[in-house]
């Protein structure tokens, strides 16, 4: 292995001194969005093309240096943060921002990994098409990061996770080769599906540099409603009624505890809750392809039926786009309200929809036994069984004392998830946050198969060490708080 000075010079020769960052210039890339992990790196490099990514990767492979791919650095599991050893090079893909092609006949667009999700949505809209992936962080997260974590979001119910929205990929391998798999095909049954292998791999198998994405027709009208509910059981029943009544037009069904929305309006007084306080709320979105009048008529018919059946307590239907955005803003502000209030213990879990109500009742009770007075900030994508099941400290407990119980809380929450046939990560990935937890809930055979794939595609163990699989890194990042 050559010296750090030699490596930095080699990287500078390939992409220019302005894009090889060290010292204070590199610092913003070394701490994750939640400020939970802070690592160290020999350098942060910012290649401007796939060819430059390949050149950097080949250089690191030649020097035996591990790499950490990074997109918008908005991840929630520490997957894009280097460990504390300082051996790695962080490869930021933020300069890869080109939208290479939009094919409206094929309903596809090809974009580079550093494109901000919101910009991709707008480019599709400018072409009279919809790219439906929608996340609270869409103004800063990148397509590459969305693919690396198989991000979900608010419209998975209708359109699926990022995996279902990607038809092809371009990937730089651990030895610096470029795999061009940018095919805009819905059917391609020619062997192993390499695309699906890289999506969701969190940068541990290769670096995604571009993708060909699915597009859809823009809806003629979008209707939004906020519904007050007595229980999670009623939320599940309303979801079933809504699926039957709206079919594929139901594009969003978010559930939020009353405590969650009370926190939002308390932390952000400029926002208001348009319904009286209730134990639970649901936010519904329906996209109609005929007309606004047709969409609203269907919306009112289904929700009036739910009211008559005493399934819901109250309903407010957005009268216009601005009101609809205000309702969504309440939902999207929950995480920000949590951050404004203080540190909390977060979970991103999925449970079969038929088991969610029982899961919430059971786990809420277990956590009250563990930490009396703790508050559950529960919200998420009920339509696909994904809950952000978060815990906030009791008012009588100090923040350090609360965070000291973090792993006790993890054990309760994750064991309950496992008992209800669920998953400890629905859309945020494993990263380093849940790497060790994975061993508890995956079978030995599953772990062995994942290891074989990792060893086959990354035999030198250079890709994102210490993430997803135990034993792939030389050290762990420093925990700085939740």
Question: Can you tell me about this structure?
Answer:
The protein is an alpha+beta fold and 482 residues long. It contains 17 helices and 20 strands. The strands form five sheets. A seven-stranded antiparallel beta sheet has the order 16-13-15-14-18-19-17, with helices on both faces. Strands 6-7-11-9-10 form a five-stranded antiparallel beta sheet. The protein is globular. The two termini are 36 Å apart.
Output the radius of gyration: 23 Å
Distance between the termini: 36 Å
Mean pLDDT across all amino acids = 93
| Overall helicity | 25-40%
Low-confidence stretches: 473-482
Question: What is the top-level CATH class of the largest domain?
Answer: Alpha Beta
Largest β sheet strand count, sense and barrel closure:
7 strands, antiparallel
Tally of DSSP β-strands? 20
- Total domain units: 4
CATH architecture of the largest domain: 2-Layer Sandwich
Quote the beta fraction: 15-25%
How many helical elements? 17
C-alpha geometry:
globular
Widest β-sheet, arrangement of strands? 16-13-15-14-18-19-17
Structural class: alpha+beta
CATH fold-level label of the largest domain: Uridine Diphospho-n-acetylenolpyruvylglucosamine Reductase, domain 3
């Amino acid at each position: 292995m050559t010296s750090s000075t030699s490596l930095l010079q080699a990287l500078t020769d390939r992409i220019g001194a302005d894009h090889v960052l060290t010292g204070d210039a590199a610092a913003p890339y070394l701490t994750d969005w939640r400020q939970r992990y802070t690592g160290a790196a020999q350098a942060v490099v910012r290649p401007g093309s796939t060819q430059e990514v390949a050149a950097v990767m080949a250089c690191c492979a030649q020097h035996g240096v591990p790499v950490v791919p990074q997109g918008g650095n908005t991840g929630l599991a520490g997957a894009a943060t280097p460990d504390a050893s300082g051996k790695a090079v962080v490869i930021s893909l933020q300069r890869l921002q080109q939208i290479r092609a939009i094919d409206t006949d094929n309903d596809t667009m090809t974009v580079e990994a550093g494109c901000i999700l919101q910009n991709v949505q707008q480019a599709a809209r400018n072409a009279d098409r919809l790219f439906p992936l929608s996340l609270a962080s869409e103004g800063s997260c990148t397509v590459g990061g969305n693919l690396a974590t198989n991000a979900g979001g608010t419209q998975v119910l209708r359109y699926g996770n990022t995996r279902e929205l990607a038809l092809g990929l371009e990937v730089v391998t651990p030895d610096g080769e470029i795999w061009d798999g940018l095919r805009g095909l819905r059917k391609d049954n020619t062997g192993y599906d390499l695309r699906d292998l890289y999506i969701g791999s969190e940068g541990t198998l290769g670096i995604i540099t571009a993708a060909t994405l699915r597009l859809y027709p823009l809806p003629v009208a979008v209707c939004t409603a906020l519904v007050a509910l007595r229980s999670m059981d009623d939320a599940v029943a309303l979801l079933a009624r809504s699926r039957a009544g709206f079919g594929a037009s139901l594009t969003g069904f978010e559930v939020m505890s009353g405590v969650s929305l009370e926190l939002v309006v308390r932390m952000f007084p400029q926002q208001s809750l348009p319904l009286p306080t209730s134990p639970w709320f649901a936010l519904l979105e329906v996209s109609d392809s005929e007309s606004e009048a047709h969409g609203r008529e269907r919306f009112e018919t289904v929700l009036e039926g739910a009211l008559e059946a005493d399934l819901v307590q109250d309903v407010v239907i957005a009268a216009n786009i601005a009101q609809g955005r205000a309702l969504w803003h309440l939902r999207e502000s929950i995480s920000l309200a949590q951050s404004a209030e203080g540190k909390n213990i977060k979970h991103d879990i999925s449970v079969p929809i038929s088991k969610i109500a029982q899961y919430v009742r059971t786990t809420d009770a277990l956590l009250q036994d563990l930490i009396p007075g703790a508050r559950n900030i529960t919200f998420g994508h009920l339509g696909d069984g994904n809950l952000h099941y978060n815990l906030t400290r009791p008012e009588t407990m100090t923040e350090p004392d609360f965070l000291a119980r973090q792993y006790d809380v993890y054990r309760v929450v994750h064991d309950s998830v496992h008992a209800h046939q669920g998953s400890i990560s629905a859309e945020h990935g494993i990263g380093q946050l849940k790497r060790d937890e994975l061993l508890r809930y995956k079978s030995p055979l599953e772990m062995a198969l994942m290891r074989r794939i990792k060893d086959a595609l990354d035999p030198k163990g250079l890709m994102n060490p210490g993430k997803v699989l135990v034993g792939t890194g030389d050290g762990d990042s420093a925990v700085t708080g939740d």
